[in-house]
Amino acid sequence: MDQVLLGPQLYSIGKMSHNPVHLDLILWRDKELAIRQNKLKGAFWNIFSEKGNGELARKLCQLHPKSKGTKLTKGNDLLGFHYQVLDLIRDFDPDSGVNIRVLNWFGHGVYIFVLFGKVNVLATLDYFINDTFRYSLSPTPWNYPELILGNHSTEKPNYKNYEKATYHQWFKEISFKDSNELSLKIDHELKKLIEFFDLKVG
Fold it and tell me: How buried is 123 (Cβ within 10 angstroms: 0-12 exposed, 13-18 middle, 19+ buried)?
């Protein structure tokens, strides 16, 4: 996608020589900053990879018969910021699906999202309300700037919200001070979800 867009963008800039684009060459040549950023990205990626290949991820996937396993993805432009995603279960059926997503949005935070299809029996109010999750009110579950930065979620959804929804998604931020705490907190959230899923499914 970037390569497709790059050509027209460069062509239009070339024709508009009277209004040149400013290049921050000091930032561009800051090798130390680039190395630090790449190391940071790599450190987060290693944590996500460890969780995606771990026992807790396997247990979660085993609890859902239509699970498609785990997947790690990354990108560079979520409102201009780098992001990394760990998906667990990955059943996106609009009625009965389940997905657990850990999103690392650089400059903003790490968040866990639990997505259910419209009629999935696991999409219960009580568990998530009691565990400080927020309920998505956005028309789409994928508009993270709207959910995280905007006002398209609530701590106290009601049954009217549930009846109108085309999907059910709960999310919350995972706060941490270092890599060890982040790893432990992700494990903690996954363990609680395993207990909840096991109780409901069993």
Answer: buried
Q: Cβ distance 71 to 98 under 8 Å? A: no
pTM: 0.87
Q: Which tens digits make up the pLDDT trace of 45-78?
A: 999 999 999 999 999 999 999 999 999 999 999 9
How far apart CA 30 and CA 181 sit, in angstroms, is 30
- The encoded tokens of residue 168 equal 């059910």
Cβ neighbours around 192 below 10 Å, total: 12
Q: Tokens representing 117? A: 């299809």
Say how many C-beta atoms besides its own lie within 10 A of residue 64's C-beta: 21
Indicate the helix (H) or strand (E) that contains 7.
Answer: helix 2-15
By 3-state DSSP, what share of the chain in percent is helix, strand and coil, each rounded to 5?
A: 45, 25, 35
